[in-house]
Task: structure prediction
Amino acid sequence: MSWYDDLNALRAWAAQARPILICGMARSGTSVLQLALARHPALFPVPSVLETFIFRLPRNLLDEPAKPMLQGYLGGHDQLAALRARLDRLAGGDAATLDDNDLIRAFFAHATSDVYPGRRPLEKTPSHVHALERVFAVFPQARVLACVREPLDVADSYRRRLQQDKAAGKPPESWAWLDVDDDILIRRFRKNDRSLQAAAALAKGRVFQVPYTWLTTEPQPALEAICAFIEEPFDPVLLEPHREFHAQAARRLAGPIGAASAPAERVLNATQTATLQRKTHRLAQRWRVPGLIHPTDGDE
Result:
């Protein structure tokens, strides 16, 4: 019996599925990692840096108009329409009656069977770091790659991107998420860390920390270790640029993944730098270490 005919079949599929989910603090390398892994012949070849928010907002699947990134992840309008028809069939006529977790299961089951057949699920949404309890409830065999970065560098990256977007004349709604003060960022860092600690305790051996500096300065050993964690053979294609990605991604990956430009002068002033270093010192120490996350005795 097909998964879209029977909820028990869908849930049995999800219990055995092994999706790879990338999450973490924004501006910490989630996009770079997803673009690299999307080249792996065993994984979903997701065509861009799409974020589905599916674990946080599963009912977006039913919204009209359709969310562009959800639609893009599934390969376009026709595939989303096909999934919705299957959801109706699964629910006996009204997809809105389905449980949120079953919507998530069906989303990935459809992508696996019809959009990226023969491939293992790969998905990237930074804010899923705060939905990891649901991730492991829906997919107990999931592997989570948690991207982290020096808090000071994240804060500086926020400020730099904000300046660039404003200078380019972009509308406020496109950069409002970047326009936050340092205290808010520090609270986000701590919340992010608490979420990772809780997930590591809940799903031992299934949450792997990927420091930004490690990924971008030691790309081959980093990706080899990541492949070992997700139980897939390393493939050198992960290190190569991909001509089919859109222009922004192609510029970022025009050379090997670690070919970063020279560090620019910080946007943060001396007072901001000193405050951030003082308030995030312990986090920075933890976030420099790649590998499985082991719960600690508290945060900052």
